[in-house]
Amino acid sequence: MRPVLSGPASGRAGLQRKSLAAEEEKGEDMRFPGNMQSMLKQAQQMQQRLREEIAQISVEASAGGGMVTVRMNGEKNVLGVKIDPEVAGDVEMLQDLVLAACNEACKKVDEAIQEKTSGLLGGLGLPPGLF
User: Fold this and answer.
1) Of 29, 71, 73, 101, which is the most exposed, with the fewest CB atoms less than 10 Å away?
2) What ranges do the domains of the chain cover?
3) What is the separation of C-alpha 65 from the centre of its chain, rounded to a whole number of angstroms?
C-alpha cells in the first residue's frame, strides 16, 4: 500500500511536478541550467565547424630530396603519391622513402589540426593540450 501525503509536503511536491512539466514544455533541459544549455549548443557548433575545417586540410610532404612526395588530407587519407623514376628500381629504398613521406605528412596534418583547434578554441581559456 502506498503512503498518502497530505498537508504542506504534498502541496510542494505537486508544485514541483508542475514546475518541471512547465519547463519541459518550454524545451528547457533540467540537467543544464540556463546559460549552460546555450554554451553546450555553441560548443557543438564549434565542433562541427572544426570537423569541416579539418576535412579541408591538405598537406604535401616529401622524402629523399623530393624523390617521393605524398599528399594527405586532414583525415590522414593519402590522396596521392609521386615517385621519381630514378628511385623506382631500388625497392627497399623506395619503401623507406614512401614510409618517411607518409610519416612526415601525418606530422604536418597534426600540426595543421593543432593550429586550427588552438585558433578556434583559444578564446575559451582552456588548458593547453586539452584538445
Assistant:
1) 29
2) 58-122
3) 34
Contact (Cβ atoms closer than 8 angstroms) between residue 71 and residue 105:
yes
Beta bridge partners of 78: 72
Q: Is this prediction's pTM over 0.85?
A: no
The second-level CATH assignment, the architecture, of 58-122 is 2-Layer Sandwich (3.30)
Instruction: Between 30 and 120, name the one with better pLDDT.
Output: 120
Report how far residue 87's alpha carbon sits from residue 92's, in angstroms, rounded to the nearest whole number.
10
The yes-or-no verdict on residue 8 having pLDDT over 90 is no
pLDDT in tens, 56-92: 999 999 999 999 999 999 999 999 999 999 988 899 9
Of 58, 83, 57, the C-alpha closest to 71 is 58
